[in-house]
Amino acid sequence: MSEDGQETKRILCTYCAHLTTHVLRARYSLRDEHFDIHFEGEVEAPGDAEIPFSLHRYSIWQCAGCNSPSLEYESGAVFPGNEGDTELSQEYFPKRSVGLIRGKGFRKLGPELTRLYQEIIACFNNNCFLLCTIGLRALIEGICDDKGIDGKLKFERRIDDLIRFLPSVNVIEALHELRIAGNGAAHHRPLDALTSDEAREAIAIMEDLLNFLYELDYKALKMSRASKRAALKSAKLDSVQ
Question: Domain boundaries in the chain?
């Protein structure tokens, strides 16, 4: 399909989370050990039209809605004279899946915990649920360290002590379940790893926890500072009047 002379295609956009029109921005192909660059063009036939060749084609598409770029990789065997019947396998980067989790940003979360959280998301999105389970356990332990909970205590007791920072004991119970799953996964029992649905729910719980412990505190501080500035401004106006 083309639009105003530009090739377009309907692709699942990872940012918009649904099928959107994408515009072709650049394309190049690799075949028979020769590297040919094409910008918004078609792949030309090899010099000897009788010899089948292997094709690897890379296309950069841009979402017409949010402008996010995507890389399309196509590969397959091409038989001269039957190009119209050629079917190339396709793969997109970032990976296309409505089930992928988009990581969130927590502005008051330190770099080490941020990296650990991001690796947990990467493990989930690549179906590495054993590592994801272990990572969730490590994240809980990292939060305990960050909140100054005594590291000499048993991990179970350290989690209990998080109640000082939380509004509900239900969160503590959920963290204990993640601790148990993480212990099993870390001790070479793959069957103890969380399933995809369980890992998704566990990540949501951890995101709520991070949001409460770090993000809400940051926003509350900003609101408090804004209120103080407004009160000071009001006091100055009253003194002038």
Answer: 2-93, 111-224
Place of tokens 């103080």: 228
Q: Which two tokens stand for residue 55?
A: 């094709």
Tokens at 39, concatenated? 């910008």
DSSP H or E stretch at residue 132 = helix 129-146
Query: Whose CA is closest to 40, among 87, 78, 2, 94?
Result: 2
Cα-Cα-Cα-Cα dihedral sign, residues 115, 215, 99, 175: positive
Which amino acid belongs to residue 145?
D
Question: Taking the CA atoms of the chain, what radius of gyration do you get in angstroms?
Answer: 26
Which tens digit of pLDDT belongs to each residue from 72-109? 999 887 776 665 556 778 889 887 766 788 888 888 89
Q: pTM of the predicted model, to two decimals?
A: 0.58
Report yes or no: 141 and 154 within 8 Å, Cβ to Cβ. Answer: no
- CA neighbor of 33 nearest in space, from 43, 46, 44, 20: 46
Comparing CA positions, the residue from 141, 146, 70 lying closest to residue 106 is 146
pLDDT at 66: 92
178-214 burial, b at 16+ Cβ within 10 Å, e below that, comes to bbebbbbbeeeeeebbbeeebbbebbebbbebbbebb
Distances (CA, A) of 210 to 39, 75, 125, 139, 165: 45, 42, 20, 10, 11
